[in-house]
User: Fold these one by one.
Assistant:
Number 1:
Amino acid sequence: MTNILEAAFAILIFPGGLFALALGLLLKGVDRKFYARLQRRVGPPLIQPALDIIKLCTKETMIPDSANATAFQLAPMLGLTGVLVTAAVMPIGGVWSGVTGLGDLLILLYLLPIPAMAMMLAGGASSSPYGSLGFSREMCLMFAYEMPLIASFLAVAVRVGGADGSALSLDAIMSYQYLHGPLLLDPVMLPAVLALLMFIPGTMASGLFDIPEAEPEVLEGPLLEYSGPLLAVFNLMSAVKLTVVLQLAVALICPNPIGGSVVVNLAWHVFKCLTLLLVSVTCFRAATGRLRLDQGFSFFVKYTSPLALVSLGLAVMLR
Amino acid sequence: MSTTPSTYTLPVGPMHVALEEPMYFNIQVEGETVRSVDLAAGHVHRGMEALAMNRNYFQNVTLTERVCSLCSNSHPATYCMAVENLSGLFVPERARYLRVIADEVKRVASHLFNVGIMAHLVGFDSLFMHVMEVREIMQDAKEGVYGNRMNLGQCVIGGCRTDIDADTAAFLRGQLEQLKPQLDEIHGVYERDPLIRARTQGIGLLSQEEAIRHGVVGPVARASGVVYDIRAKAPYAVYPDLDFEVQSDTRGDVHSRALLRLREAAESVRIIEQCLDMIPDGPIAVSGMVTVPPGESVARTEAPRGEVVYYLRSDGSDTPQRLKWRVPTYMNWEALQVMMSGCQVADIPLIVNSIDPCISCTER
């Protein structure tokens, strides 16, 4: 009974649910503001993403006649539910150690692609040729960025597991870092950290990898036909996905708390997420443009995956 | 157009974020590869040629200035030249210099706009913002000298409307001094940035033979090795007295067109400076009423996008019997079918933008 209550709290309030939504919208707001300042624009207020959601919710839901209405409406719900559940298993150093038995890298490998799959479903269901293009682009890119992700996960697991085999639970990975220092500072793991930093813009489709939703090319692809509350749900999904990806990266490479107080640790955690956001998403997309799909794919195959594999190889040799 | 089972239709336009103006491309796509392109136009036809035949010669100066905003000086200038050719008016020397200055100021702003949009299309919005900020120097120059940021209202039949006195000339020179280092920097960025090169080199290829076959004009022709510039081929105004170099390239891809535009912008800055140095004193327009005798005349100039031709026929009344113009985009857009064959969907906006299409000119 306690377990169920604990899980419900984790999914609905903290660290998933309300907390993840609020943090996601804040991160989106900071991203937009900082991006604008880098371009010498004033930029929108920090709460603009939240205001956008409210505005969209007041609009009518439009479903194209030729679309598959069920799948069209289901896709955003599926995506948001998926990321909220993923957010619930994210541990926060010194604040929350995750739902017992849930924080596992293998589970994450299944949960993380859900938003991308929701986008594919949306693109396919919308019956627009741009949606289909977005679908195929999303799928291609997903194959590309999942490779380095899996390799980085394995590298971390082997490094943490040491002689005993590999550690797949986030709990174990964090405990290891509390003892031995963050993996961010571990020279063996440096290539994998870089690969993970490239995975973040890849999965968030920003900067070089803004391919599936490229506005001038495929008119936002799968999102083209979405409007009103359904688009708001997709925006929320994207915000929570950003939180999830950044929190995962923090848990994997620098989860160490700063002090004894929960509040201080939570603020420290948010600060780390923000720093990671500014480095791997905001500055990255301000300094680059968009690659073509084939170029984006080969970027991950040529540069990112080998980086993660180098760490994995070193970790295996040194254990 | 027949659709084979492996291809599907990708409708680009008439409303599409990558197009600033309405135009419809029926594109047959196989996966991400373009198999064939069909163009359809006519969404912004405003009947301006018919309108021109219902207005007198002076009203038509205002009308032609409103054909398009980016080459809004080329149209009235060419129209005025056609009227002056027919009526045998001699435009004062000072006015000729003023017309060249107005033309080149507009050319710099137009070219910067186009290369800026290119950066936006490859998703490099920071560069887009930077180029537009640099273009703002030229917009301020226009506002300071002519009072307007887009339509200068500089040309009148037989001369110019706004004089550039010593103070204004100093202001314009100051703006050019600000612009020059920025233009150099932007050229360097476009030339060397790995992302810009990866996205724009080798796409939208137009060989010299194809360029000649389609009769393309302007920067599109010059980037494909066809050195055709009306300012040098059939010099008008004071271009024969000016020292400038016609820019050309032989690669004929999207990247070379953008670089060529930036080099032309730098050349335009030199031309404006020469004009400010050499401009003689004197009247800026002929005085008295202008009468247009019956007859025909033609005038052509080099607009930012290429050659603009105006044909005028008069029956001696105060309205033209026929006024017809041919704009560069009309010559260039058919070549899109060559440039876009076999390209990727991601390249479509870049290739379309590389001819700097002006739909409102073409459909008027």
Number 2:
Amino acid sequence: MPSEPDARAGRGKSPLGLRVAAAAGLLFLHLPIVLIVAYAFSTDDKTYRFPIPGFTLRWFSAAWERDDVWQALRLSLEVASIATGMALVLGTMAAAALHRSRFFGKQSITLLFILPIALPGIVTGIALRSALAIMEIPFSIWTVVVGHATFCVVVVYNNAIARLRRTSHSMIEASMDLGADGFQTFRYVVLPNIATAILAGGMLAFALSFDEIIVTTFTSGHEQTVPIWMLNELVRPRNRPVTNVVAVFVMVLTLAPILLAYHFTRGTESTAGSGK
Amino acid sequence: MSAAVELRGVTRTFGKVRAVDDISFRVEEGEFFSMLGPSGSGKTTCLRLIAGFELCDSGAILLHGDDVSRTPPYRRPVNTVFQDYALFPHMSVLDNVAYGLRVRRVPRREREDRARQMLATVQLPDMAKRRPAELSGGQRQRVALARALINQPRVLLLDEPLGALDLKLREEMQLELKSLQRKLGITFVYVTHDQHEALGMSDRVAVVNRGRIEQLDTPDGLYERPRTAFIATFVGTSNVCTGPLAAALGHSSKTVSVRPERVRFGDGGDRDVTLSGTVLARQYHGATSRYDLAVADAKLCLVCPSTEAQAEPGQAVTVHVPAAAIHELEPADSGLDPGPGPDPDPRNGPRDAGPDGPAEAHA
């Protein structure tokens, strides 16, 4: 639009076409999510009819009374908590070990650490499944936890090492110089400086684990985590809006840690959500 | 009596670089000892070896007679003031200073009292509650000093502690550091690349170059009796004269050093060497002026009070140098180690071709 170039120059208003395209893109991404939420309140229990015939809160109570929903939720929370716990310990230790030391093969080890998040979940899943089969380890919650931990560790590791790189090493030396041994130095100096990064990594790890489906499929026996339960519900429709209710619940549950993680690492250039 | 700090043939290599190359010296109790050298000379590595952040490849480090070569930093009775201060950003100033006591499990009341006293000693009494980020550079420097002194070390290591301060503050802190050292009576090992700091504060100075001690002497010894051309030009400025100019000064086929302020205009007496030359250039520095002269096919630099300035470029002049001010230097490629005995074998390390520093700075 030809207007006073001096006044508009700085703001750089983008052309109409681009703005429409951007809006369309965003709608395409987020409208389905809105629909999921909307159909959680639908009175129709079989199909996704549009427009929605009527609104009800009945599915929330229906979901509340279903034992399989509760079992799936509990299992998912357990798996995510344990996997995150393992990731926090292992990821932080790995980052602390690798960020300063230089040795032959360090690059390969770093790559091996990062690999699980780069590999397609199906590869990790099949690999784990055959490994478990060879070792004759029966499927249980622990096989799922280990499967999830493979990529949860990466998220914590990435966050921790990014923060460690920006932490002055002479601080650690100063602590040792003043008489603190390795443990005291970690406790009083290193940990307070990387705590928010680790926390952010842990929250992301939790969110990743909570909605993971592919690796879970390959590493679980009869156990159903929430995503697997939902997948089963979709193929075998029964009280379809209950699925939507659970979806809404999961969304809220995973949104909180992601927003918190974003908040903690805001303004820092740590590698937060490198996708999975 | 054993020395406060003693290094015996200490070597530390990083890859192919000999950062510290067979260094030996003793620092006496209560001494203000400086290590002076250009960047990359190995002086900081030396300090880090004493502190324990690096371990030596060979040789031994003794503190008050105890071999600490393999002792981790937290068990060595020394403390360090870091170049970047290395304050803990998540702790208050008081907690920073009290940290050394905290890790030794001194009760909170006692350690905070002692930290407050220490902050008063470094003249920062009202900053206890602040965070390091809220302090100025000079204040941070004092906090770092207080923190390093809280454990009452007998040896304090200082790694270019004044490097980040502006000139005025640096001069002020020099005086303060020196008086603090006298008051506390502890040994200071001070690393700097600033010759004014080293000469102004130290009892003795070790000039470090390429991982070796080029000369270890008192400040005036270094200035008056430089051993090599490197020392003569690194500590102060000097005319390092060879060839015809050295011959004209009465030391043919030798290398000699003449400080520019010892060269004077006019004819000299019996104990002086009189030379004639031409003024090439003149630089006015306020209190003093510097003249570059062409004498005996070489350049000779003269510095005199500006009030005595009397020559213009192009003018033919006569200058004289007291014979006592002509100091013979060791040839650039010998006598590497001032320590006990010369090195038996010629150096085998991968090293630059030219053996000992920028020999012909002037001349």
